[in-house]
Amino acid sequence: MNKGKYKILKNTITACDYTYVLQIIKQTIKSRNRLLVSPIASQTLVRAYYDQKIFNALESIDLLLPDSQWVKWSIWFLYGVRLKKRVYGPELMKKICELSEKETYPIYLYGSTNQVLLKLKERLLQLCPMIQIVGSKESKFRDLNSKEISELISQIYNSKAKILFIGLGSPLQELFSAEIAKKNIQTNTPIAIISIGAAFDFIAGTKKQAPRWVGDCGFEWLYRLLHEPKRLWRRYFSCGLLYLWLVVLQKIDKKNEK
């Protein structure tokens, strides 16, 4: 199901479901193209609103998906388009791994730490025993220089992976996926690049994931804030309130245009 594309703040969100994303991934690999996918949260849209570099990175993504309930609700509030479910990063990663097992797509994992990656691989192999994980590399938790970026991208493409999961956190992962896409123009390698955020930690079990009902109610942010207050309080309170305000302003602008 694809209900179209809608502008939220400054960026364009694809209002679709998991099935549609999986279909596009299959089509992309079959046609030997590249695809950028990112489930996006409200705080990243706020940062992109004020930061041109982040905005450009998000605009380069083919499928920018409503990861949070707040983004999903914003599509309804602004455009009257209702989605049954958000496209939640950890759930999307599991579904893509199931597809990869069925279609024998090799997978590469980039981000987090070696400890998390080891646990993540173990968990993915439990979920999908025949999955092919052809490579992984931990994040250096800093900006890579041009040489390091080139070496990493070459390593990813040389692995012949068809699916690349990036778990750097947003917007770093979207910025990095844009770099990979530039290299892909030269290599013409069929690949789906999925920016997946905290899914690495949640699936690996190294961080607690909010119960499904909490996420469905739109309070996953509060659950995560209670577990990581020092790291997340500024992100959720400042960006969260600002996001709501900017969406309301967008609604007012839409009414004035009529």
From TrEMBL:
**UniProt xrefs under PANTHER family:** PTHR34136, UDP-N-ACETYL-D-MANNOSAMINURONIC ACID TRANSFERASE
Return the protein name. Glycosyl transferase, WecB/TagA/CpsF family
List where this protein forms a coiled coil: none
Enumerate the InterPro entries for this protein: WecG_TagA_CpsF
Say if the entry is tagged with keyword Transmembrane: yes
Q: Please list the GO terms describing molecular function.
A: hexosyltransferase activity
User: What is the scientific name of the source organism?
Assistant: Candidatus Roizmanbacteria bacterium GW2011_GWA2_37_7
Q: Does the keyword Membrane apply?
A: yes
Q: Which UniProt keywords apply?
A: Glycosyltransferase, Membrane, Transferase, Transmembrane, Transmembrane helix
